[in-house]
């Protein structure tokens, strides 16, 4: 099964890393904007730990994007960690705190698609990145 993963074209790896880096920078800019406008607790409806997690993404999104641009394996690893935890945090916020659903939350819809992209392409591109 993994034999054909070795043949992922270089342009695909570069494109995926570039797209993921841009989208991570978009996320970072949103978190930075929240930090500048509202400080470490931008969402008064969310618990402190969740606010601090989202605020920390201002740094971690940038780090993951920078590593991806440099072609480093730790970039995709960090992006996977970010996407999995951010998706879990946002699902918890939407369902557990706001008592809403996916259909009513376009931001969660976009995040879910981006997480699926990152997590889905990682097995194909990771081996092509450097340590």
Please, could you describe this protein's structure?
With 131 residues, this protein is mainly α. It is built from four helices and no strands. The chain has helices at residues 10-38, 48-69, 73-97, 106-125. Helix 1 (10-38) runs antiparallel to helix 4 and helix 3 (73-97) runs antiparallel to helix 4 (106-125). It is globular, with a radius of gyration of 16 Å.
For this entry, give a set of tags.
131 residues; mainly alpha
Number of helices: 4
Reading the helices and strands in chain order gives HHHH
Number of extended strands: 0
Q: Please describe the biggest sheet, giving its number of strands, its sense, and whether it closes into a barrel.
A: none
Radius of gyration: 16 Å
What share of the residues lie within helices? over 70%
Unreliable stretches covering 5 or more consecutive residues: none
pLDDT averaged over residues? 90
How far is it from the N-terminal to the C-terminal residue, by CA? Answer: 23 Å
- Return the structural class: mainly alpha
Q: What spatial form do the alpha-carbon principal axes imply? A: globular
Topology:
Elements: H1 10-38, H2 48-69, H3 73-97, H4 106-125
Short description:
The chain starts with 9 loop residues before the first helix and ends in a 6-residue tail after the last helix. Helix content is 73%, strand content 0%.
């Amino acid at each position: 099964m993994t034999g054909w993963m070795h043949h992922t074209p270089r342009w695909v790896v570069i494109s995926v890393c570039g797209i993921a880096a841009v989208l991570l920078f978009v996320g970072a800019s949103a978190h930075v904007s929240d930090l500048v406008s509202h400080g470490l607790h931008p969402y008064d409806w969310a618990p402190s730990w969740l606010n601090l997690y989202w605020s920390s993404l201002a740094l971690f999104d940038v780090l993951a994007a920078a590593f991806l641009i440099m072609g480093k394996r730790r970039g995709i690893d960090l992006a996977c960690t970010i996407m999995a935890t951010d998706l879990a945090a946002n699902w918890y916020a939407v369902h557990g705190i706001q008592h809403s659903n996916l259909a009513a939350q376009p931001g969660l819809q976009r995040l879910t698609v981006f997480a699926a992209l990152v997590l889905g392409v990682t097995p194909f591109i990771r081996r092509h990145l450097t340590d």
